[in-house]
């Protein structure tokens, strides 16, 4: 089976913070529907997580000279934030793409990438 990562790069944290429990549950239900559709096509979710707010993020990057610099908060040059991800395995990439279509009901964008193998 081929492994893929499903990324949610454009979710707006401010909208999530204002969402009611019912609105949040609707998003979770959409994600569960994705999992069901993926399984119907022979794939499976093997991992994943909802990520905490980017305000709790730390960034380590190359600084002047050789010393790394650690900063708080999301990377300043990034217009988007990563709110979560799934790891999935499937032999049916077309089936994965079809199942992933339901995710855009709740997420503005979904990025699907093959996990590199060594």
Automatic annotation (TrEMBL):
<comment type="similarity">
    <text>Belongs to the YciI family.</text>
</comment>
<feature type="domain" description="YCII-related">
    <location>
        <begin position="15"/>
        <end position="101"/>
    </location>
</feature>
<dbReference type="InterPro" id="IPR011008">
    <property type="entry name" value="Dimeric_a/b-barrel"/>
</dbReference>
<protein>
    <submittedName>
        <fullName>YciI family protein</fullName>
    </submittedName>
</protein>
<dbReference type="Pfam" id="PF03795">
    <property type="entry name" value="YCII"/>
</dbReference>
<dbReference type="InterPro" id="IPR005545">
    <property type="entry name" value="YCII"/>
</dbReference>
